[in-house]
Design a protein that fits this description.
26% strand, 11 helices, 330 residues, alpha/beta, four-stranded mixed β-sheet, three-stranded mixed β-sheet, L-arginine/glycine Amidinotransferase, Chain A
């Protein structure tokens, strides 16, 4: 089996989850919808980008999505929440060989088990007329990142967590990554970001930006809550003979806890950028490093327009632009 195409390969379309449930998003619902609409608009790029497929869980949300993004195709499919990087299928191959690979899903280790999230992958594959197969183990798409050559990044904190596949050893998990995702080499990083409820998804920590080339945050001083995680990941990448490019970190980003209201460190990361055909969209948070990070990522993608967009309200739900999307390669 060949590995999935890298994210920078051309896409036919981009699935994007559209916030739909007021009981989940509360006061953040409307502004989160507007952040998603801004992402969709940037990716569409006045028709120069891929087709945008906004996935809404209800007819009411679909109407809002269409009003905000008249250029988009809006799909109504019930889901628990918007995190399609984890619940949607990974599309393998290209052209006539494309198919959708699904995995088991248990709400990020039993934390957030919501109706529809365990079946949205197969249903989305159906809307795209893609053959679908479901693997016999649990994996979220945000837990892995590849460069198209068979090299795959992941973290021990997530894939070896007993709340996912307690019956599988490290070697068995590696074997299934090779079997189901065409991996030829798995590079294991350690921990992900502090307070990341995904248990350390790699798409918040380290991202391939070219064959054998990985972008990773540079700690923002001693108060950066992820200083140790960044340093350990960089060391592991260099040990794996991968090229490492440092990107500024947003540093310590604090937001009120949605339940207690107490100031809490949140897993804000510029690494949750999304690569489209015409644009790369970087989440920004009002940090003094926002501009430098966007500039550094722009240098990695000279053939695309790189823009920074605020993702504050999406972050209240636990993720950002990469987390809510899944590409359909051409």
């Amino acid at each position: 089996m060949t590995a999935p195409l890298p994210e920078w390969a051309h896409h036919d379309a981009m699935w994007i989850g559209f916030p739909s449930h007021a009981d989940l998003w509360e006061d953040d619902l409307a502004p989160a919808q507007e952040e998603v609409a801004a992402l969709a608009t940037a990716l569409w790029a006045d028709g120069k980008g891929e087709e945008i497929r906004l996935v809404a869980a209800t007819p009411e949300a679909a109407d809002r999505a269409q009003a905000l993004c008249p250029f988009a195709k809006v799909i109504v499919e019930p889901f628990g929440d918007v995190w399609l990087r984890d619940t949607g299928p990974i599309v393998m191959g290209s052209g006539d060989t494309r198919r959708a690979q699904g995995f088991g899903f248990n709400g990020w280790g039993g934390k957030y088990e919501l109706e529809g999230d365990d079946t949205i992958g197969e249903r989305l594959a159906g809307t795209a007329s893609l053959d679908y197969a479901k693997a016999d183990w649990i994996l979220e798409g945000g837990a892995v990142d590849g460069d198209g050559t068979g090299v795959l990044l992941t973290t021990e904190e997530c894939l070896l967590n007993p709340n996912r596949n307690p019956e599988l050893s490290r070697e068995e998990i590696e074997g299934r990554l090779k079997r189901d995702l065409g991996a030829t080499r798995v590079v294991w990083l350690g921990k992900g970001l502090a307070n990341d409820h995904t248990d350390g998804h790699v798409d918040n920590l380290a991202r391939f930006v070219g064959e054998g080339r990985v972008a990773i945050p540079q700690p923002d001083g001693e108060e950066d809550p992820n200083e140790e995680a960044y340093a350990a990941a960089a060391e592991a990448l260099l040990d794996a003979d991968l090229e490492v490019t440092a990107i500024p970190s947003p540093g310590k980003v604090v937001r009120p806890d949605p339940e207690t209201g107490e100031p809490t460190i949140v897993p804000a990361s510029y690494m949750n950028f999304l690569i489209g055909n015409a644009a790369v969209v970087v989440p920004v948070y009002g940090s003094e490093n926002d501009g430098d990070a966007v500039e550094a990522i722009a240098a990695l993608f000279p053939d695309r327009k790189v823009v920074g967009l605020r993702a504050d309200h999406l972050l209240t739900g636990g993720g950002s632009f990469h987390c809510i999307s899944q590409q359909v390669p051409r």
